[in-house]
Write a structure and sequence with these properties.
The chain is α+β, with helices and mostly antiparallel strands. Helix content is 21%, strand content 25%. The structure holds a DNA duplex.
Length: 145
Amino acid sequence: MKSEPNEYSIDDLKRDRVAPWVGVRNYQARNFMRDEMRIGDLILFYHSSCENVGIAGIGKVSSEPYSDATQFERRGKYYDPKATKEKPRWMLVDIRFVKKFKRVIPLQELRQEKPLQNMITLRPGNRLSITAVTENEFQHIEGLI
DNA sequence: GCCAACGTTGGC
DNA sequence: GCCAACGTTGGC
């Protein structure tokens, strides 16, 4: 799960302990949270669009999917005029802090790892903010720390 | 700031 | 349903 650290970083999650993953406005990413994730699933927290791009730590899905409150905030940047309380368009899950890595594992380094060469988020041109990680990929990444 | 690669919108 | 125009993401 990607986040821009100047918006919301692994340190912010560590401080808050649990946070709703607000602001996803892409249907594929939404569907991932709404349909695929289960409570207890581990997630990799990725820092994007920043000085040290890469994986910063681990979180855990800690709620069922529910409506993203920011879609109704008229003055907020995540406001969606087409969403209604009866028919919310954007769903999210809560993410709980698990751990912060001792270092951010750089994107460049991830790209050089053979066992990660098929990782969805590393594919050229991928912009999706939430993508699947296989068990093997996850374990390999934990081994890089 | 540039630009590739998408995703979305809206006219037809 | 098609597709041009436009907007966004995100690495560099």
